[in-house]
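Morning F.,

Quick status update on the modeling queue. The single chain you submitted on Monday has been processed. Sequence for confirmation:
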Amino acid sequence: MNTIITVGRQFGSAGHVIAERIAEHFGIKCYDRELLARAAKESGFCEEIFEHHDERPTSSFLYNLVMDTYSFGYNAASFVDMPISHKVFIAQFDAIKSLADEGPCVIVGRCADYALAERKNLVRLFICADMDDRIKRVCERFEITPEKAKERIIRMDKQRSSYYNYYATGKWGRAATYDLCVNSGLLGVEGTTEMLIDYITRFDGRQK
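Structure tokens below.
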């Protein structure tokens, strides 16, 4: 196994569960919120800062500032003067690249596909599902009403979309941004996981 797998996901689509099962099948690590702890450890910031800024959009002005600095390099002096959102962005991207350098793994969300875009051993997946399926799953998971579940789904999708669309060159959830987009509601968690494992296995075989 020599493949890095990134998983974008709609809220309530079981993307996290599917990512974990893929990682378990291949005997590799899965990083979702664990990525925040890694970024905190490597940057020296407390983990709560990363939790607060996790996949949250920023202003267009800050986006330009971040991308200019990330593209052209930064030194210790400039890093000290950066806004905290800027530092979190850079620390998280550095952590993603560091994890990928260590070997095959599954990374969930957080523009990982964009951070690792130049790697040839990268498979970019996106998990979606119909709203009714997602509402049912969120209701069961959080024990809330369908109305509350739908509100949470819309809010989280908007947040993830805004974050991705600020930082990445592609568009969140659009097929052209990924190698494969899958509706998990059609095959269920088990069927979707099996299909993706087959896809990744075939891709990995072509890399050898």
